[in-house]
Design a protein that fits this description.
Length: 149
């Protein structure tokens, strides 16, 4: 039985690279009284090079209603599997722009904790964005994604 499971283990989920597309980010802000935009619509892509290594890039309308761009590397060394769904955790380090309260909307580098939940076709990235006084408003961010490769 183990041999059959090992042969069956070469599923499409485990083939590399994988390409996922997303329509932006939904951010549930911790301070809902500030009138921030939660639906940060946009377009993003990620390429999973191997289980632990992901490249991400995209653009979206951020919570301050300005256009943001980003490019990031995600390292996710922790892995679990539940009922055919892969769950991985790690950290993303990326370059971001478009936040008017920080560097006048210019580029900056930031780390973010990441949790990826991935089925065969659909998945989600979940991240915790910290509050940084007078710069960023913290949120729980969810990014729904579709695997296209």
């Amino acid at each position: 039985m183990y041999a059959a499971a090992a042969q069956a283990g070469a599923t499409p989920q485990e083939s590399w690279p994988q390409v996922w597309l997303n329509p932006g980010i939904y951010a549930q802000h911790f301070d809902s009284g500030k009138g921030l935009r939660n639906n940060n619509i946009g377009f993003g892509a990620e390429v999973v090079l191997a289980g632990d290594h992901v490249l991400m890039a995209g653009s979206f309308i951020n919570s301050n209603r300005a256009r943001s761009h980003f490019g990031a590397y995600q390292w996710r060394p922790l892995h679990w599997q539940f009922s055919g769904v892969d769950v991985s955790a790690g950290i993303a380090v990326g370059a971001f722009d478009g936040y008017p309260n920080y560097r006048h909307g210019g580029w900056f580098v930031a780390p973010l904790p990441m949790l990826a939940i991935e089925g065969r076709t659909f998945g989600a990235n979940i991240s915790l964005i910290p509050t940084v006084a007078n710069r960023f408003d913290g949120a729980l961010a969810v990014q729904i994604k579709l695997r296209v490769w």
